[in-house]
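Fold Annotation — chain and its backbone

Encoding — discrete vocabulary of local shapes
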Amino acid sequence: MESKRLQKIGGICAITEGIIYIFAFIVYGGLLVYPSENASTVEELTFLATNYTLLAIVNFISYVLFGILLAVLVLAIHNRFKQHSPNLSKLTFIFGIIWVGFVIASGMISNIGLNSVLNIGSTDPENAMQIWSSISIVAEGLGGGNEIVGGIWVLLISILAFKAEQFSKPLIFLGIIVGIAGIVTVFPLDIFTEIFGLSQILWFLWIGISMIRRP
């Protein structure tokens, strides 16, 4: 009974993560009006200051809350497959936990960095934006622009599901696509990150429903 409850909770977390992805796409892609490439330092700093509250909330939801929910899902997935393939399930669990750490760290760095940059910007705008550039690179490297760890985790889950004959074949195939898309984000092309993000929305929603319906 406890195991079934964990599967259902993990499924709810997966669905919520898919919704968080959609929320992030809407805010970052539609609601926020970013300065042009030729914008001055003052204009960029003004954008951060004006949208500080929204950026902080979105960062928290998209990274910190997402990471917390992901930790529960990682545990539920491990619990589901540990009897079928103990060693592979442990490896999958390890990559999942690493991804959890990266995602949460990325969100915390972004929010703490944003607050510090605005404080520095009140007296030294040029230095503040240089610091923000460095913070953005670190945050992107951990949990935004590089999805290798997440891709490996999804790919390993798909292999586990295939071996254990869990989940439907189309869901397993989708997981393989998501996993490969995440791994190839090692190449600095936005298209791979976008494919990973969009396909993982469907994967999170689908696997969440499957875990709830068949715990």
Remarks:
- The chain has one domain: 2-213.
